[in-house]
Automatic annotation (TrEMBL):
The organism's place on the tree of life at top rank: Eukaryota
Keywords: ANK repeat, Repeat
Name of the featured protein: Uncharacterized protein
SUPFAM superfamilies linked to this entry: Ankyrin repeat (SSF48403)
Residue spans of the ANK repeats: 103-135, 136-168
Lineage summary: Eukaryota, Viridiplantae, Streptophyta, Embryophyta, Tracheophyta
PROSITE patterns for this protein: ANK_REP_REGION, ANK_REPEAT
InterPro entries: Ankyrin_rpt (IPR002110), Ankyrin_rpt-contain_sf (IPR036770)
GO terms assigned for molecular function: ubiquitin-protein transferase activity
One annotated GO biological process: protein K6-linked ubiquitination
Pfam families: Ank_2 (PF12796)
Length: 204
């Protein structure tokens, strides 16, 4: 691990980034005040954890494959900011889509909270747990309901999200919506539940 001044270009040499990819040299520009960054080369996502080392310095820590705290952070940030390409690239590097950060949040939490239906659908198709809970026992459905993201709410319920899940405040997603008077979200929940019941699916 080496320290460099922010805003400069460096070259990092290594022999392998994954069993399928070999890259010999990479040049990147480090921002002056970075937190985390990703670099895409020929369709391959390389992960870098950039953390402040003082007013002007940053540390570059190569994270090339698998699930690590750095790759989890990158995954959650990609889901939060609706960057499907990065989510897919991270998954291709072996980062689990059910990875949780220190607060128990998953990529599905972040995408659901911010209304990114495309990423929500991708995560669900690829095995993300729709009922994953964070440290406060909130599920992605709790957060989608809280923020009024109707299409995400429907998508989660149709994929098997539990409507009656209780968080640490003993509230279900419906309780959270009722407290805030978001009747359009209630209508969306009822619509999705009715759609499932027509297929003979029991909704919990």
């Amino acid at each position: 691990m080496n320290s460099y001044k922010g805003g400069v270009i460096i070259a990092v040499h290594y022999s392998s980034v994954s069993p399928a990819v070999a890259v010999t040299a990479v040049s990147i520009t480090i921002p002056s005040s970075p937190t985390a960054a990703t670099l895409s080369i020929s369709g391959t996502m390389l992960l870098w954890k950039l953390s402040g080392m003082g007013a002007d310095e940053v540390t570059v820590d190569q994270t090339l494959s698998g699930t690590t705290s750095e790759s989890i952070e990158a995954l959650l940030e990609a889901a939060r900011y609706d960057d499907l390409d990065d989510v897919m690239s991270l998954a291709s590097f072996g980062v689990s889509l059910n990875s949780k950060d220190s607060e128990g949040r998953t990529a599905l939490h972040m995408a659901s909270a911010n209304g990114h239906c495309g990423i929500v659908e991708y995560l669900i198709r690829n095995g993300a747990d729709v009922n994953a809970s964070n440290v406060e026992k909130n599920t992605p459905l709790h957060w989608a309901c809280l923020n009024g993201h109707i299409e995400v709410v429907k998508t989660l319920i149709l994929a098997g999200a539990t409507v009656s899940a209780l968080n640490s405040h003993e509230r279900t997603p419906i309780d959270e919506v009722m407290c805030r008077g978001k009747m359009n979200v209630i209508d969306a929940i009822n619509e999705a539940v009715a759609q499932l019941e027509l297929t003979g699916t029991t909704v919990s």
